[in-house]
Design goal:
By secondary structure, this protein is an alpha+beta fold. The protein has 9 helices and 9 strands. It has a 9-stranded mixed sheet with strand order 6-7-5-4-3-2-1-9-8.
């Protein structure tokens, strides 16, 4: 049995983490700790909403978790790794999560509405095959980053950037492919997404700006990025993907990073 040690008791400035595909066991943990990253009541979502964001497009959902003292993950056993079903253990380990799915360009999924997201994705993706439905115009769809969060206890390690860059690069190798990525920045986090490569869309119609403000908060803004340019930039600068990469299974989307150091002067808002 691995001893459960909170992140702040392992070391002040260094951690090891695993980026991996999300598992159904993660949903209860994400639901339970959501107020840590999104304290506003308007951003609160039900368990069913989180579960559905995962189930409609599981291949677009990932987690980053803490490697505890005594855990042994290396290239030989990373293929067999599975997250625990123990909520209390998972609350110690889960540091952040990443939900993404296909969506219509320029549109924003409603918060806390499992049915609306399910219906919207079903119009684009054939769940049985994971491919685009016949007749879907690829110029009208994008990869939508529904939610990316890093818990306060892990801020300062640039996990939001590492998680986003690693997952976006991984998804670019999968099918279907997208040429556009969009997200709604909340709680003033746009500077973090700008540092990753997203630009604020200043050309939104007033009606859509009002919708964002009403449903996502006063500081909400829509941001977008050219996916192909992002992938090329990651290819040309592997440091964005592989700082202290110890073991991985690219096909399964498992990436184990050791000795990630905390930045003293610059702390992520995510």
């Amino acid at each position: 049995m691995v001893e459960v040690i909170p992140i702040e008791k392992i070391t002040e400035n260094e951690i090891s983490v695993l980026i991996r595909p999300m598992h159904i066991n993660d949903i209860n943990t994400i639901y339970t700790v959501q107020k840590e990253t999104f304290p506003a009541d308007d951003l609160f979502e039900s368990y069913e909403a989180f579960e559905n964001k995962f189930l409609v497009y599981p291949q677009g959902c990932f987690c980053v978790e803490l490697i505890l003292e005594g855990e042994n993950i290396d290239q030989a056993n990373i293929d067999h790794y599975e997250p625990s079903s123990d909520l209390e253990l998972n609350k110690k380990k889960l540091l952040g999560h990443f939900f993404s799915h296909p969506w219509t360009k320029g549109e924003f999924p409603p918060l806390n509405n499992a049915k609306a997201i399910g219906d919207g994705v079903d119009k684009i993706i054939d769940k049985s095959s994971g491919d685009l439905n016949s007749g879907v115009n690829t110029e009208n769809i994008m990869l939508y980053l529904n939610e990316i969060a890093v818990r306060p206890m892990a801020r300062g390690f640039n996990l939001a950037r590492l998680l986003s860059n690693r997952v976006l690069y991984h998804l670019s190798k999968q099918s279907p492919s997208f040429d556009h990525i969009g997200l709604v920045s909340v709680q003033g986090s746009y500077t973090v997404w700008a540092s990753i490569g997203f630009d604020i869309d200043h050309n939104l119609p007033p009606k859509k700006k009002d919708y964002l403000s009403k449903n996502y908060g006063d500081k909400a803004c829509y941001m977008k990025m050219d996916y192909n340019k992002k992938v090329e930039s990651l290819k040309n600068n592997q440091l964005y993907l592989c700082p202290n990469l110890i073991a991985n299974n690219v096909n399964s989307g498992l990436f184990y990073y050791g000795k990630l150091f905390k930045e003293v002067k610059r702390v992520s808002k995510l």
